[in-house]
Amino acid sequence: MLRRALDRFTLTNLFMWLVGGSIVTLVVVGSYATLSAGRYSIRHWFDFVVFGIAQGSVYALIALGYTLVYGVLRMINFAHSEVFMSGAYIGYFFATSMNRSGFLDRNPLAALAILFVVAMLTSVIVAILLERIAYRPLRRAPRLVPLITAIGASFFLQEAFRTLFGSQSKAYPDMDALKGTWNLGGEFAIQKIQVLVIVAAAVLMLALYLFVQRTRTGKAMRSVSEDKDVSALMGIDVDKVIVTTFIVGAAAAGAAGVLYSLMFRQINAYMGFVPGIKAFTAAVLGGIGNIPGAMVGALFLGLFESLGPILFLDGLGVAAPYQLKDVIAFTMLVLILIFRPTGILGERLATAKA
Amino acid sequence: MMKKTRSDWLVALQIGMIGGLGAIFMSLVGMVEEFSKRDIIAGVIEMGQTLILVDLLATGYLASRRVSGGKGIRKTALGALAGAVTSAMLYALVLLIPPLELRTVFYNASPTLIKILALGQAGVAAPLVMLAVGAAIGAVGSGIQQLPAGLRRAVLLALSWVSLLGLLQDLLRVTLSFIPGANFVVGWMFAARNQKGLSILGAVVVFAAITFINYRWASRGVSAGRWLGSRPAKEQQALRWGGIALGVALMILLPSVLGPYLSEVTNQVGLFILMGLGLNIVVGFAGLLDLGYVAFWAIGAYVVGVLTSSAIGPNAGQIVFGPQLSFWIALPIAVMVSVMAGLILGVPVLNMRGDYLAIVTLGFGEIIRILAGSDFLKPYIGGSQGIVEVGVGRIGTFAFDRPQTLYYMVVVACLLAAFISWRLRDARMGRAWKAIREDEDVAQAMGIHLVATKLLAFATGAAFAGLSGAIFASKIGSIYPHSFKLLVSINVLSLIIVGGMGSLPGVFVGGLILVGLPELLREFSEYRLLLYGALLVVMMLTRPEGFMPEATRRREFHEEAAPGAEPDAVSEPVAST
């Protein structure tokens, strides 16, 4: 048994375990150093955790789109980050005009509802067009082809938004209702906006999960993701199911766009790129193709990103560790794909054949 | 019968509306206005109008192509309808911009745009003129479609040549002024010195000449290759050597003909071709989609920078490590470090395929860029302030410090890389790469060592990128992290896809088109990525094998394609241009 295992252990494996081992050592040593230095109080850590969860909720909503589309098409929808961006962007125009007329602060609930509807609708339209123009004609093409189309579409959308609406970043209007914090007793406080983000994301994810698990359409989606040809034989309109999948994923991304822009209050055409990759990482982390996995993975990633730079790197004396938070996320993606391509809850797909 | 007739008109209407959306999009992203500053034919038409013109021609062409048989008049009418619909949509845009204050949302909906779109007309005249012009151009488009295949090809080619010559007149004027006797041609072909674009006479002559030559060649079926094949063997060899000698002479003389600015453009193209050759091995030969390719370029540049620079960061006192070596020692070290990086990246991704590989390599590229700009590594590589005073290569008193001299280094590097790629392509390793590209499992079953083969692909690709990066660092003399964005990877990827994945001439053609043209046409720079994105999608939908495909690729992509999908297409390009 041991002999067998040793035989399969190659030089490349050794290399990878060395890399993995050194990173884990770094993390452990760094965390110990940071904690023993005691520069951060419990309140700081609480704030980091809450921020991490809020950020993770947004990632989770975006990650759903990746996971759902991957489930039915076995392809990474590279342009999904632009679906998210377009929702946020069009939402911005409605938010500013509502802000100018004062509606945003007079009727915050109605205004938020309008924002969500508009953003989700925009994202859905973009996603439908994307599927129709860039992906559907290439269903049977070699695997690299739709991937390149997706990259092209992603850049096209980014640049189209930038050139249509101007290059400069835009400031998202402030909502009075979301300013300030709620006291949780003692020294703990939580920002209102973070509560909104976490609650809204949780509600949406629950609705989505129920939709996929309980409805007839959801059942068809799951069936198509098992086997397209057999589903077609069972009388399922595969094309329609694929479009529905895109729509559902895009609606979640549009909502994420609103939450993200309310949280960070900055809009530009490139805002989708980084959250998009993070969300993809989250989907892989949880096991791509697996809906609860995407949520769990996203929360993990959000926490890692918010705690990681301080916890792992600050103690090691790294200058300005916050600049490296994306490095932490990407390194995590690579490590997961090496050591557990199944993700936390998923099946092994990273090396699966097309 | 009635039903079919109606559906034809509906199709024309639909095509016209799509054309209209396209024209509105081009107007609102600002292309029309931005491009209107450059004349194609002086005083007659500028580039912004050309965009709309091409859009209208295309709608007319497509509308009349939808009808299989039918009389000429009906086809022309369909084309005219489609063109008119497109114009009507543009008029709607013109009409709606002021009252809806579209400018508050759409950045480019300016009064100038309205003026351009309305063809300088106002009031009642505007819609009439616009519709008439739209219908007329649509009809012309449909007329082109109705020409016999050979002539149609010739006309389309001639139209593209006229616009190309008009666009590139700066370049041509400079180049031609070195050739004795060419001043005469410049005199009548181009507009007066203070104007841009072709003269009217020049445009007409070029159009007629190219149409005529092409049509005659196509109808006689004579091509250069076939003519060469019909000569006796000895003469063939002599001609071939003569051609090579001519090419070498041209290459040596080129920078003194081009002058500093155009040499600079050539160098830029060369560096991208060098990267393209490397990525071509990774993506084109071995089928491993690498989106973090810019990382190796950055590594090559940074190694040369750190090793040769005398000032890292603005306050040179901060240098922790800076041996200030000569460029020629730093260059091979840079290539070797890039190869090491290629191997280090290659090992973890050995088992990943397709999209996973793409996203992990993308992450790797971002990690390198963020690290390069971070304060963490600032003492060593300058952080966001970068590295300045990068060393230049010298041989004796000959310094590669100007575009005209650096040109030779770029050319040698490109030729070297092209030679290596060419020899590897048909060698055992090249065939192993292609086998992996087609099917990894079968390749492994056939006894191909996957680990070694893949790693060698990554290493070779990284070596070319490192070389390119090293020369780049020496060329611009200073290195900043923001030069190494994901965009560079996408640029290189677009280049090899447009040329044809796995095709060596394709890399050169792709480099010239995608890097050279935007450098020459400054107006494009704003829309470069927009056009690349659209190009990638359109290429994949219509011509996934690229413009100069490798023979096996062409077969692969077209084995399943339904024969006669485009019944009136010329199946074999006959004449060479």
Write a structural description.
The complex is a heterodimer of chains A (354) and B (577). By secondary structure, chain A is mainly α. Chain A has a domain at 50-272. Helix content of chain A is 74%, strand content 3%. Chain A has 14 helices and 4 strands. Chain B is mostly helical and 577 residues long. Among the domains of chain B are: 1-146; 263-485, no CATH class. Chain B is built from 24 helices and 6 strands. In chain B, helix 3 (47-65) packs across helix 4, helix 12 (233-285) packs across helix 20 (450-476) and helix 21 packs across helix 22. At the A-B interface, helix 2, helix 7, helix 12 and helix 14 of A face helix 15, helix 21 and helix 23 of B.
Helix and strand arrangement:
The complex is a heterodimer of chains A (354) and B (577).
Chain A: H1 2-8, H2 11-37, H3 42-73, H4 80-101, H5 103-106, H6 108-135, H7 144-165, E1 170-171, E2 181-183, E3 189-191, H8 192-214, H9 216-226, H10 228-233, H11 238-264, E4 266-267, H12 273-286, H13 291-313, H14 325-339
Antiparallel strand pairs in A: 1-4, 2-3
Chain B: H1 2-28, H2 31-35, E1 39-41, E2 45-46, H3 47-65, H4 72-100, H5 111-117, H6 125-146, H7 149-167, H8 169-176, H9 182-189, H10 200-220, H11 224-229, H12 233-285, H13 294-308, E3 311-312, H14 327-346, H15 354-373, H16 378-381, E4 387-388, E5 394-395, E6 398-399, H17 403-426, H18 428-438, H19 440-445, H20 450-476, H21 486-499, H22 504-520, H23 528-542, H24 551-558
Antiparallel strand pairs in B: 1-2, 3-4, 5-6
Helix pairs in contact in B: 1-3, 1-4, 3-4, 3-6, 4-6, 7-10, 12-17, 12-20, 12-21, 12-22, 13-14, 13-15, 13-20, 14-20, 17-18, 17-20, 18-20, 21-22, 21-23
